[in-house]
Automatic annotation (TrEMBL):
GO terms for biological process: antibiotic biosynthetic process. Residues 236-372 form the Erythromycin biosynthesis protein CIII-like C-terminal domain. This is UDP:flavonoid glycosyltransferase YjiC (YdhE family). InterPro entries: EryCIII-like_C, EryCIII-like_N, Glycosyltransferase_28, UDP_glucos_trans. Keywords: Glycosyltransferase, Transferase. It comes from Krasilnikovia cinnamomea. The keyword Repeat does not apply.
């Protein structure tokens, strides 16, 4: 079989698809990625062939121009995120699918896949599946229940279906859901085990040694530092200085020098695979990225979530509701909160339960086999 993967150009959208792509590839099937901009390096870095379906397009440039033209949008997006409204994502990202559509449709018609898999914002995948006349599989990235989001994208892109002579599907043929069922109101289709992927790396020597005291990972993802600046990370560092624990800052590819001099109990890494780091940690502080939260669940560590937009408030509420994490605003970060993160026994019990739950879900290899039989 041939499986075409289409993803929005960002680590948070490419990385969740990689384990399934390799599950197909390891079974002897042909796999091809279509993305653009920042996503090209993420897909090729995973050892997968990739086609640029929007040459010259970069999401960060597009969003920068959009927010410059409509300066009210960032505040509106943050307000929508606090209401758990996902429809603002359609406003921001339907134009990205629109930009990718022409080349993606031509790629699908030329390469003739048997199946198209796409991420929750990659509505262009449904267009490509319709163009190829094959099922489209929606791969959720986290805790958002994606049916309303998918319908919003479908409505926003109906004119493209008409332009290319395509029949718009009523819903995805299959939806794959990586969220452990106990963390969400109801499963969103077929459950799939989340297998962490965040590229390979040469590991530092200290990471292979047992930590001398409790270790806490800190990650704000690959987008938040660019949007929000270093302020949140600096506040975390300031509070961490007063805690008897080691803090490791995973900077998502940004240079260590941006934070200046650090306290003795804080070290920074330009890039480190988060899943590897978390095997040595007791807890993590993060921004509410779905991939970060799911990687933390896979490691069975307690979480402190400081959400700041997009789907991150939904992620934060999922962790709090299930009892595997705490949630705070930036100005609520203090010594007492971090002490609770490290000492709350109930957080650790719940984290261990959900880790076991996640490990019992069908692995990507099982899902790949099921999709092949289903197809």
């Amino acid at each position: 079989m041939r499986i075409l993967f289409l993803a929005m150009p960002g680590a948070g959208h490419v990385f969740p698809l990689v384990p399934l792509a390799w599950a197909f590839r390891s079974s002897g099937h042909e796999v091809l990625f279509g993305t653009c901009g920042e996503g090209l390096g993420h897909a090729s870095g995973a050892g997968l062939p990739v086609v640029d379906v929007a040459p010259g397009f970069r999401v960060r440039d597009y969003l920068g121009q959009l927010f410059a033209q409509r300066p009210e949008l960032p505040a509106q997006e943050r307000a929508a995120a606090r209401r758990h409204s996902v429809h603002f994502a359609v406003t921001l990202f339907a134009p990205v699918s629109r930009r990718m559509a022409g080349d993606a449709i031509r790629l699908a018609r030329r390469w003739r896949p048997d199946l198209v898999v796409y991420d929750e914002l990659g509505a262009v995948g449904a267009l490509a599946a319709a163009a190829a006349g094959v099922p489209g599989v929606l791969h959720d990235c986290g805790f958002v229940r994606t049916r309303p989001l998918w319908q919003g994208f479908r409505q926003a892109l109906l004119d493209l279906y008409e332009e290319y002579g395509l029949r718009a599907p009523a819903e995805p043929a299959v939806t794959l859901d990586p969220a452990p069922p106990s963390t969400v109101p109801e499963p969103d289709g077929w459950s799939v085990r989340y297998v962490p992927y965040s590229t390979g790396a040469v590991l530092p020597d200290w990471l292979s040694e047992p930590p001398r005291r409790r270790r806490v990972a800190v990650s704000l993802g690959t987008v938040t530092p660019d949007v929000e600046g270093p302020g949140l990370m600096q506040r975390i560092v300031g509070v961490a200085a007063g805690i008897d624990a080691e803090f490791v800052l995973a900077l998502g590819g940004r240079p260590v020098a941006i934070l200046g001099e650090l306290p003795p109990n804080v070290r920074a890494c330009e890039w480190v695979p988060l899943n590897v780091l978390l095997t040595t940690c007791a807890a993590i502080i993060h921004h509410g990225g779905a991939g970060t939260a799911l990687t933390s669940i896979a490691a069975g560590v307690a979480q402190l979530v400081v959400p700041n937009g997009a789907d991150r408030h939904i992620t934060a509420d999922a962790t709090r509701r299930r009892g595997i994490g705490l949630v705070a605003e930036p100005d609520e970060l203090d010594t007492a909160l971090l002490q609770r993160l490290l000492t709350d026994h109930e957080l650790r019990v719940a984290a261990a339960e959900v880790r076991t739950e996640l490990s019992g879900l069908p692995a990507p290899a099982e899902i790949a086999s099921r999709l092949i039989r289903w197809r």
